[in-house]
Amino acid sequence: MKIFVVILCLVVSSLSFARYYDPQTARFLTKDPLGPHEGGDINPYRYAGNNPVNFTDPTGLKLWYADSQSQTDLGSAVQTMMQSAAGRRLLAQLHNSDNVYYIHSSAAPNGDLAAAEVGGRNAWVVPTFHPVIGTDKGPQTASTARVLAHELGHLTGVGDTPVSGNRMDNVNAWENPIMQPIDGYTRTMYGDPNAGNGNYGGSGRACR
Questions:
Q1: Bigger pLDDT: 60 or 103?
Q2: CA separation (Å) from 53 to 27, 46, 61, 172, 191?
Q3: What would the pLDDT profile of 19-49 be if each residue is shown by its tens digit?
Q4: DSSP string spanning 74-95?
Q5: Whether the model pTM is above 0.70
Q6: Is the pLDDT of residue 16 over 60?
Q7: 72: how many CB neighbours lie within 10 A of its CB?
Q8: Distance CA 198, CA 165 (A)
Q9: Beta bridge pairs of residue 136
Q10: Rounded to an integer, what distance in angstroms lies between the CA atom of residue 146 and that of residue 90?
Q11: SS3 sequence, 17-60?
């Protein structure tokens, strides 16, 4: 007798994307909600970047881990983001884009510990990078989920351009709405409150 489980992926516009999984064959039995018509891919089961042996896609989104280590390192941060309505909205926006996005748990090519291509397709977050940020509750150490939320926000095209001299566009658009309901504080400045500069963590190695 086969056992079936339903994996509820994401609620978008009152629609529940769900797929049935057969643990005996280790395969999803229901087609990926992306379907065969997006991205020119005729494979209706492309739930893991066409590599289901090494990757999974629990959210059903066009957001792939760059490799298995990135999935291990950042998978829980993605799940944490989904606890807030803004986090689900960001992931839904990426899902509805024509692009496919990749997250890497390594430094960016230029050495930044957290970075993303503004309006591009790649984001990098080193999971051990936890910058100190200025908040309404004093200096706080940012979680991996908060850093990732910030970088994924950049993929929507929102940059860190100056707002009243404080470079808060992406923080206000995505980072705070996603993470304040989860970690309970609002980021109030872009730089390290102990360093008084404009970098995410004060090191100059983050958030381009």
A1: 103
A2: 10, 12, 18, 38, 41
A3: 566 667 766 666 555 444 444 445 555 455 5
A4: HHHHHHHHTTSHHHHHHHHHHH
A5: no
A6: no
A7: 12
A8: 9
A9: 138
A10: 13
A11: EEEEEECCCCEECCCCCCCCCCCCCCCCCCCCCCCCCCCCCCCC
CB 94 within 8 A of CB 155: yes
pLDDT given at position 27: 67
Residue of 1, 182, 188 lying closest to 78 (CA atoms): 182
Q: Name residue 164's amino acid.
A: S
CB-based burial, 148-177: b 16+ in 10 Å, e otherwise:
bbbbbbbbbebbbeeeeebbbbbbebbbbb
Q: Tokens for 111?
A: 């050495």
Alpha helices, DSSP H, located in 59-142: 68-81, 85-96
